[in-house]
Amino acid sequence: MMYGQADFEQNGRQQRRVLTVMLLAGVPLLALAAAGFAMRAEALCIAGCILFGAVEVFLWDWRLAPVRRYGRFLREVTSGLTRRTAGMLMRIGEERVYQDGVWLYELILNVYEDLSEEGERRFLLDCQKPRPDALIGSDVALTSHGSFALAIEPLAQKDA
Prior knowledge:
The protein has helices spanning 5-38, 42-78, and strands spanning 83-99, 102-110, 120-126, 139-145, 148-154. It is of the alpha+beta class and 160 residues long. A hairpin with a 2-residue loop joins strand 4 (139-145) and strand 5 (148-154).
């Protein structure tokens, strides 16, 4: 499987690191607003509150939200039904696809023996995981949750 306890731990560390940065960035601005309030300087208090809010919203949207979405993605794909599909790995897309808050690569698996286009199935591979480029053109067993690839293993070759 591509996902394990280490992925959850790394995601938790990233969330804590971003929350710490948000706290450290917000404390001076909140102190500025408090100083303005204590000195009865309305403009200073308003500026401190506006800057505090702007910095926190910016950090939340650009830093924390993607890490939290990836954590939700990890919880979703590791808990639930999985399906194992056998076929030939046709190609892995070069372009990244954004779906459910995560960047992914398209992976095309053909499940028909004659490799007709009707047998092509689209799966999504996490960009943070290694690409199995060496398996392109070979028979593989793909474990998935919905359309998300969880594991890709080569199938044993038949003796002729």
